């Protein structure tokens, strides 16, 4: 194995950690190659032949959804910001309730390949497809950046001599190859398999750590590195080399508050007291909840997976099982954060790829010896599965937008299925290269923070479009496009400004200090961009009511009528897509 990497990177590498990670990558690539042999038609590449069962699809969606943000970012943010960060896993899971109730079934009944397909078909507007494609790419690239941060962080941990950008390039190249070869059908089996890898990798090491160093409650009662909880296990006191928490570690009181350092940082940066900062904290929290819940219901790479189900009933069952699978998973990352806060306080002082985002990878090593290395190797394998599966899904979603929507529908509507499949492979390489370039620039940003921004853009663009289009027959193309552009571009502009500021590319520190409210409304814009999008859709649709599609009643029947009535119509017909005909 050592011949595969420069010797400089192999110095100081733990063989167990390297071994588990290497096996995960090899198995993933092998499964991708094997599945690629079954991807023969355009339908296979874009929607896996619409033949994925409920169990497989629920596992695949969960594998795709549980990204580096879920596997590494939640634990790192709980460790750095405390209970404040629990809004992330709770709302990540809650978003699927919105999907189950309002979107999953109708979306599948419409029978498209991509969300831009739905946008064009619902409003009979090729122009709207172009707008929708742009947001697939905006959301996708914002979401790939934290996956690349996870890749760079994990590789830098496994190979101490490897620079952060080296991990981003290596992992990005492997996943791009996998997607280019097999498309949606090629990655479905891989993503389902990777969910169960992640589940195993997140729960087994933490159970072992707790059996040695005490359970969750014992670590909650630790202050300044000294055990204060009554009845704390002797092993915790005797075995762990006590280190005082660094200055960067949060104090106990705000750490256990649901409105702590995460949601009050903008106000506190302006010199406000904790009492003065509380209204800002509530505003930030409500905005975060809206972004994560509505954003989950507006993520193109998740929504497109419902088109792989045979029908709307299967799509709704799939959504219910996804809620169960990811809900069980999210029990564990916060436990890593709490125990890591006590046992590995040195991570607070580090930044970038060496900071708290690494706690899931590092914590199992406190067990010591070979067992510590084995457990850390297992979590590293889970981290690989996390960012590989999510990046695969994002890549398929964005590649499908380019190959199917831009090339196959806009530039060359008469292209053959073979030409579209070839363009799928070319587009995968282009998108992969851009994602790698962006990911190499975000080492200093927190994984979960970046994901929250991607969700805010999805919440202000795709969620209003889908929710209103499915449930309100009076919506016009002009209204839908105005709302999507107004809310989505506002969220995109805000998140871009915040990232440029946090990366010190633009100096706005004094401005943010003087205007904490503007900082919060920019950092988490969903609280005003989502209502803005919906309001624009309603007002402009009312003003252009004459432009409501003439066949809207039939379309609403297709969206909502049970399949048994026989009204379902596949928007992408077999002869159009080249499904073997």
TrEMBL record:
<protein>
    <submittedName>
        <fullName>Cation acetate symporter</fullName>
    </submittedName>
</protein>
<dbReference type="InterPro" id="IPR038377">
    <property type="entry name" value="Na/Glc_symporter_sf"/>
</dbReference>
<feature type="transmembrane region" description="Helical">
    <location>
        <begin position="85"/>
        <end position="107"/>
    </location>
</feature>
<feature type="transmembrane region" description="Helical">
    <location>
        <begin position="127"/>
        <end position="144"/>
    </location>
</feature>
<dbReference type="InterPro" id="IPR001734">
    <property type="entry name" value="Na/solute_symporter"/>
</dbReference>
<feature type="transmembrane region" description="Helical">
    <location>
        <begin position="526"/>
        <end position="545"/>
    </location>
</feature>
<keyword id="KW-0813">Transport</keyword>
<feature type="transmembrane region" description="Helical">
    <location>
        <begin position="484"/>
        <end position="506"/>
    </location>
</feature>
<keyword id="KW-0472">Membrane</keyword>
<dbReference type="GO" id="GO:0015293">
    <property type="term" value="F:symporter activity"/>
</dbReference>
<keyword id="KW-1133">Transmembrane helix</keyword>
<dbReference type="GO" id="GO:0006847">
    <property type="term" value="P:plasma membrane acetate transport"/>
</dbReference>
<dbReference type="Pfam" id="PF00474">
    <property type="entry name" value="SSF"/>
</dbReference>
<feature type="transmembrane region" description="Helical">
    <location>
        <begin position="454"/>
        <end position="472"/>
    </location>
</feature>
<feature type="transmembrane region" description="Helical">
    <location>
        <begin position="319"/>
        <end position="339"/>
    </location>
</feature>
<keyword id="KW-0812">Transmembrane</keyword>
<feature type="transmembrane region" description="Helical">
    <location>
        <begin position="283"/>
        <end position="307"/>
    </location>
</feature>
<dbReference type="GO" id="GO:0005886">
    <property type="term" value="C:plasma membrane"/>
</dbReference>
<feature type="transmembrane region" description="Helical">
    <location>
        <begin position="54"/>
        <end position="79"/>
    </location>
</feature>
<feature type="transmembrane region" description="Helical">
    <location>
        <begin position="195"/>
        <end position="216"/>
    </location>
</feature>
<feature type="transmembrane region" description="Helical">
    <location>
        <begin position="15"/>
        <end position="33"/>
    </location>
</feature>
<dbReference type="InterPro" id="IPR050277">
    <property type="entry name" value="Sodium:Solute_Symporter"/>
</dbReference>
<dbReference type="GO" id="GO:0015123">
    <property type="term" value="F:acetate transmembrane transporter activity"/>
</dbReference>
<comment type="similarity">
    <text>Belongs to the sodium:solute symporter (SSF) (TC 2.A.21) family.</text>
</comment>
<keyword id="KW-1003">Cell membrane</keyword>
<feature type="transmembrane region" description="Helical">
    <location>
        <begin position="164"/>
        <end position="183"/>
    </location>
</feature>
<feature type="transmembrane region" description="Helical">
    <location>
        <begin position="422"/>
        <end position="442"/>
    </location>
</feature>
<keyword id="KW-0769">Symport</keyword>
<feature type="transmembrane region" description="Helical">
    <location>
        <begin position="374"/>
        <end position="402"/>
    </location>
</feature>
């Amino acid at each position: 194995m050592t011949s595969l990497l420069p010797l400089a990177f192999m110095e100081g590498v733990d063989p167990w950690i390297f071994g588990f990670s290497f096996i995960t990558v090899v198995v993933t690539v092998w499964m991708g190659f094997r599945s690629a042999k079954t991807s023969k038609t355009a339908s296979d590449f874009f929607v896996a032949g619409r033949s994925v069962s409920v169990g497989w699809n629920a596992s695949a969606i969960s594998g795709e959804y549980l990204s580096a943000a879920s596997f590494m970012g939640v634990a790192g943010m709980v460790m750095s910001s405390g209970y404040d960060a629990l809004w992330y896993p709770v709302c990540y899971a809650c978003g699927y309730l919105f999907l189950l109730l309002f979107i999953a079934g109708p979306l599948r009944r419409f029978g498209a390949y991509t969300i831009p397909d739905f946008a064009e078909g619902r409003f009979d507007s090729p122009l709207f497809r172009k707008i929708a494609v742009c947001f697939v790419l905006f959301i996708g690239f914002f979401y790939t950046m934290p996956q690349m941060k996870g890749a760079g962080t994990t590789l830098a941990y496994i190979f101490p001599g490897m620079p952060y950008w080296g991990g981003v390039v290596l992992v990005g190249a492997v996943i791009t190859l996998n997607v280019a070869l097999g498309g949606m059908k090629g990655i479905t089996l891989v993503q389902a398999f990777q969910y169960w890898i992640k589940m195993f990798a997140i729960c087994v090491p933490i159970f072992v750590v707790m059996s040695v160093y005490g359970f969750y409650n014992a670590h909650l009662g630790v202050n300044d590195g000294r055990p204060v909880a009554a009845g704390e296990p002797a092993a915790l006191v005797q075995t762990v080399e006590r280190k005082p928490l660094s200055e960067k570690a949060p104090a106990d009181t705000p750490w256990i508050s649901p409105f702590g350092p995460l949601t009050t940082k903008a106000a506190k940066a302006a010199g406000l007291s904790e009492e003065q900062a509380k209204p800002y904290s509530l505003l930030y929290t409500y905005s975060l909840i809206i972004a994560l819940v509505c954003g989950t219901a507006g993520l193109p790479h998740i929504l497109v997976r419902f088109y792989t189900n045979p029908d709307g009933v299967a799509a709704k069952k799939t959504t219910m099982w996804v809620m169960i699978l990811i809900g069980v998973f999210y029990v564990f990352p916060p436990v890593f954060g709490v125990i890591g806060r006590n046992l590995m306080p040195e991570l607070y002082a580090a930044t970038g790829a060496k900071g708290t985002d690494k706690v899931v990878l590092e914590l199992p090593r406190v067990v010591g010896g070979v067992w510590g290395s084995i457990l850390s190797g297992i979590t590293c394998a889970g981290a690989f599965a996390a960012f590989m599966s999510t990046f695969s899904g994002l890549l398929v979603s964005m590649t499908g937008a380019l190959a199917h929507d831009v090339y196959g529908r806009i530039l060359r509507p008469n292209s053959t299925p073979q030409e579209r499949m070839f363009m799928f492979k070319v587009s995968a390489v282009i998108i992969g290269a851009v994602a790698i370039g962006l990911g190499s620039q975000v080492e200093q940003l927190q994984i979960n923070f970046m994901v929250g921004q991607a969700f805010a853009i999805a919440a202000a663009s795709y969620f209003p479009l889908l929710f209103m289009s499915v449930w309100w027959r009076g919506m016009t193309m002009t209204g839908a496009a105005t709302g999507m552009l107004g809310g989505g571009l506002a969220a995109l502009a805000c998140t871009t400004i915040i990232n440029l500021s946090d990366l010190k590319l633009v100096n706005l520190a004094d401005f943010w200090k003087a205007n904490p409210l503007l900082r919060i409304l920019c950092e988490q814009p969903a609280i005003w961009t989502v209502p803005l999008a919906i309001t624009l859709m309603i007002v402009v649709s009312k003003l252009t009511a004459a432009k409501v599609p003439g066949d809207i009643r039939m379309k609403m029947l297709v969206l909502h009528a049970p399949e048994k009535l026989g009204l379902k119509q596949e928007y992408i017909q077999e002869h159009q897509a080249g499904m073997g005909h």
